[in-house]
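Supplementary Methods S3. Input chains for the assembly prediction are listed below.
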Amino acid sequence: MIVLDHVSIEQDAFRMQDVCIEVPRGAYAVLMGATGSGKTTLLEVICGLRRPTAGRILLGGEDLTDATPAGRDVGYVPQDGALFKTMTVFEQLAFALMVRRENPEIIEARVIELAELLGIQHLLDRTPDGLSGGECQRVGLGRALSFRPRILLLDEPLCALDDETRSQIVDLLRQVREHTGVTTLHVTHNKSEADQLGTMGLRIENGCVLPLAM
Amino acid sequence: MSDVSRHNQREWRPPGHGGERAFLTIFGIILGTYALFILLLIGADLAYAGRGTPTQSGWPFAQAFLAAFRSPEIRSAMILTMVSCTITAILSTFIAIPSGYLLARYQFPGNRLIDALLDVPIVLPPLVVGLSLLILFQFLPPGLRGMVVYKRPAVILAQLAVACAFAVRIMRAAFDQTDRRCAEVAQTLGCSRWQAFRLVELPEAWPGVLTAVTIAWARALGEFGPLLIFAGATRNKTEVLSTTVFLELSIGDLSAAVTVSLIMVAAAVAVVIAARTWGSRTFKI
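Predicted C-alpha cells for the full assembly:
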C-alpha cells in the first residue's frame, strides 16, 4: 500500500502542494500527466531519492518519510532502465541480492527464475551495450523485482518502444502483476496504456493529484 | 578514443568531388605537417644520440645509454623520478576522484569559483607555481619548511600542484559521462551511498581513473620550472630527469642531455600508449 499524506514538494521553480494519494495493496495504479507535470519527481519522492518539504509517506503501513532509499523496499525502474553499464544482465539481476549478501545458490536460482519470467535467458551474459529498448526495459524490470519488493514504481516503461515491443511489454507487466501481486505505481502519458493495465487511475494537473476515470 | 568521437567518425573513402577533395587535402596537410614535426623532434634526438662522438666506436647509441645508466647521478635522478611521479600520480587521483565527482554531480555554492580555481595551476607559468610554493612555505612553521623546501618532499609537492589539476579535470569529465540515475537506482536496490559509489559509479568511471593516473604521471615527469625553484636541482638529492637535462646542458654535455631526454621520451610514449589503451576508449576528455 502506498500512501502520500499531504505531501508537498518544491524544487527550483517546480512546486506541488498537499498531494494525497492512496494506492491499496496489490493495486496497479496508473499516474498520468503532461510532460513536466512532476510525475517522475513524485516517484523519486516515494522511493526516497528526493525529500518532500512537508507531509508523510507511508509504505505498507509504515511511516518511511525519513527512511533511506535502501530501507524502503521499493523497486524502481527509471525511464529507459538506467542499467549499470559495466555489469552483465546476470549481474544486474543479482545485484540487489548480492548487496544483501544472499547465498550464491539462492541468487542464481532467483536470477534464472526472473530471466524465465521476463524472457531474457539468452541475454544473461550480455552487457547493456547493444540491447534493444524492450530488452533494457525487461532487464530494468527484473533488477527492480529481484529482491521481491512490496512496491514497484515504473517511470514510463513503454515510452520510446515500437508498437510490437510495446504490446509485448504490456503483456509482460500484466503477467508480472499476476505472478507477484506487487503494488505498482506506473507513470505514463498514454491513455491506452493506462486503460490496458491500470486497476485505478490518477492524474496530475496544476500541481494536484486527482482521480482519473478508467 | 571515445565512443562519442567514434560515433562521429566514418570510414575513410577517397574524396569524391573537387570541393571535398580540396577541403580534405588542406586539412590533411595541416594534420600531417604537425605530426611530422613531432616525429622530427624525436627523430633528431635519436639521430644525435646515434651519431656518437669521434672517440666512440661500435654502437654509439647503446654506449650513450650505458654511460647514462652507469652514472650514479643519473641513476639516482631516474629512481627519484619514477618514485616521485608514481606517488604524485596516486595522490593526484586520490584527490581527483572525490573532487571531480562533486563538481560533476552537484551545484553547490562556490562551484563555479572552485571550477575556475582548478584552471589556475594549468594556466599559470610554471615558474610562478614554484615561486608561489616557495612563498607559501615562508608563512609556515620553520620545522615544516625545513622538512620540505629544497628536499625530496618538495619534488612531490611541486609535481602535485600542477598534475592534480589535470587529474581533477579528467575525473570530472569521466563522472560527467556516467549516468547519475544509476547510483540512485543502486540505492533503491539496497546500497548505501558509499556502496552505490563503489559498486556502480566508480566502475563506470574506471577508464577515467586510469587516464587520470597516467596523465598525472606524465605531467609529473615533465615538471621542471616549479621543481627548480621549490626543490632546487641538487645532484643525488632533488635531481629528477627533467633537471638532469638542464644540469647536463649547463655543464656542456649535450650528448648526456639528449640521452636522458630520450629516456624521458620513452617513458612518456609508454604512458601515452597506456592511457590510450586503457583510458580514452569509453569517454571523452
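The interface with chain B takes residues 44, 47-49, 68-70, 72, 74-76, 78, 82-86, 95-96, 99-100, 143-144, 146-147 of chain A (CB under 8 Å). The mean pLDDT of chain A is 91.
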